[in-house]
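FAQ

Q: What does a record look like?
A: Structure on top, sequence underneath. For example:
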């Protein structure tokens, strides 16, 4: 309550009251990713208020997102007495944050808050938690000079060892089938211009790790889209056929490779660049590892390749361009078939046609959202915010509110399944009361799509816990004071989505998608049940 009372007079801080600490943390996470600054979440109540942070902080930790969580904590005189709402918050947060503190003196609170911001924003970024015991907040202290306020000064980032950069340039310059795989290190640093300059010199296609399809503007001729088991066939085949791969700002982790040579050329020479040295060569053997900031190393490589003529790679790049054009044409062809009930291909095509060029997307996990990530158009980076490796359902709507707060001038669209939206729809009250005008598009197939797909494909259609009865979400939106739109036919999608974007209020578009349009992404997990493989 002392913090709230201080915020009442704080004209330089905007307080947003949320319905749940979990969704509030998703808002802070997405705000941080969209703005490049730290997002802050206050969980005022110790015990249950703090435990509600856990899912959101674990999500931010997986995304290397700089979230500062301020959590109310038990009065110091009550610790270890099984007091009301007592839980060991220090132990609770430690595995899912970069650092967790519990304040011990009121006079040190400014120092600890400064340290929280510094730690969260230092590469690799990530969430931190500061526990604030109740009795400390009740004290009155004189605050002296703060020697190093949060955010003051500029810190440099490593540009990579020049000798290694030159060796990497020679490898790339001699490649006949070069490929760049770019990840969060490029996206989060807003280094798309630096990477495109390098790609142009090499005439190398650029594939993006899943969830980072917006690391480059999608209209560029060297843009290949997402790679790997959750990517598209053209980008994935590039990774299987390349002779030299520059993995820059990416760990080549699970969503990119499933840790399998099935998704990466075993004979390729891999050059890996990451600001975190423990990421280098962690999952796949590498020819060269360069510890450094992805953008600065990209600039250094471009300089080292000055005068390079990419004649050996021309045929490779031309073949890629033709395959990419054919893929996009096939998507448009499938979308044009339309048909009702609404199929995913037609839905994605209608969204591509209806949404503005400045659209920023948030997505959930789940099969429809995973399919959407490579199908949407990311014209202006950053434009895609996903659960990444945490695979969280229930992230997207609250995340969209955080993105809109960071970038109020842009269109923000949250894609969710009906189950995920049902988890978090209470934040519509937050959106309406604070004028956060995002558009939530509910891909409503009346089921948990992934689970039902696996039960269909591998468990003899023995469905249990798969179907989700929902209220009409467009009507629920209107009850909250938002705008609601219901879509039952494919020809209605464009009109409803454009109206939602232009309505000037928070909006929900409830799109009824064919419940039989199911897809099993993780077929590798059920090989033991795949009778067709025997």
């Amino acid at each position: 309550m002392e913090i709230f009372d201080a915020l009442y007079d704080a004209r330089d801080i905007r307080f947003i009251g949320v319905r749940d600490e979990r969704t509030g943390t998703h808002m802070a996470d997405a705000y941080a990713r969209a703005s490049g600054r730290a997002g802050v979440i206050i969980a005022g109540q110790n015990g249950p208020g703090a435990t509600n942070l856990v899912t959101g902080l674990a999500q931010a930790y997986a995304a290397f997102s700089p979230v500062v969580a301020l959590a109310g904590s038990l009065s110091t005189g009550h610790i270890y007495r099984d007091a009301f709402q007592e839980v060991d918050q220090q132990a609770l947060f430690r595995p899912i944050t970069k650092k967790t503190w519990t304040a011990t003196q009121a006079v040190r609170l400014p120092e600890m808050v400064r340290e929280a911001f510094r730690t969260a924003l230092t590469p690799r970024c990530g969430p931190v938690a500061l526990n604030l015991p109740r009795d400390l907040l009740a004290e009155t202290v004189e605050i002296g000079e703060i020697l190093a306020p949060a955010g003051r000064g500029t810190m440099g980032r490593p540009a990579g060892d020049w000798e290694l950069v030159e060796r990497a340039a020679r490898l790339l310059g001699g490649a006949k089938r070069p490929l760049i795989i770019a990840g969060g290190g490029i996206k989060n640093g807003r280094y798309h211009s630096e990477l495109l300059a390098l790609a142009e010199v090499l005439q190398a296609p650029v594939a993006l790790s899943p969830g980072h399809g917006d690391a480059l503007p999608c209209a560029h001729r060297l843009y290949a889209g997402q790679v790997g088991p959750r990517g598209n066939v053209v980008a994935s085949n590039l990774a299987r056929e390349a002779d030299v791969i520059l993995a820059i700002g990416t760990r080549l982790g699970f969503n990119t490779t499933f840790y399998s040579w099935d998704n990466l050329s075993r004979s390729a020479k891999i050059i890996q660049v990451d600001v975190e040295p423990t990421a280098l060569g962690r999952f796949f053997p590498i020819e060269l590892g360069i510890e450094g900031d992805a953008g600065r190393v990209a600039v250094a490589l471009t300089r080292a390749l000055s005068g390079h003529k990419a004649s050996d790679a021309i045929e490779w790049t031309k073949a890629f361009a033709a395959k990419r054009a054919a893929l996009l044409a096939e998507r448009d062809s499938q979308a044009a078939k339309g048909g009702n009930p609404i199929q995913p291909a037609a839905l994605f095509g209608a969204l591509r046609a209806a949404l503005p060029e400045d659209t920023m997307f948030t997505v959930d996990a789940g099969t429809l959202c995973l399919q959407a990530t490579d199908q949407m158009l990311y014209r202006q980076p950053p434009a895609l915010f996903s659960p990444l490796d945490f695979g969280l359902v229930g992230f997207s709507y609250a995340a969209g509110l955080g993105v809109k707060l960071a970038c109020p001038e842009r269109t923000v669209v949250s894609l969710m399944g009906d189950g995920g939206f049902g988890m978090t729809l209470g934040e519509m009250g937050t959106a309406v009361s604070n004028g956060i005008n995002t558009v939530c598009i509910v891909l409503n197939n009346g089921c948990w799509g992934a689970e039902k797909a696996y039960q269909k494909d591998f468990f003899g259609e023995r469905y249990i816990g798969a179907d989700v009865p929902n209220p009409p979400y467009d009507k629920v939106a209107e009850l909250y004071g938002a705008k609601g739109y219901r879509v039952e036919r494919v020809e209605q999608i464009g009109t409803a989505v454009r109206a939602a974007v232009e309505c000037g209020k928070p909006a929900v578009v409830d799109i009824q998608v064919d419940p039989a349009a199911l897809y099993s992404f993780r077929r590798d997990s059920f090989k033991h049940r795949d009778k067709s493989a025997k």
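Q: Is there anything notable about this one?
A: The chain has three domains: 2-137, 162-322, 337-524.
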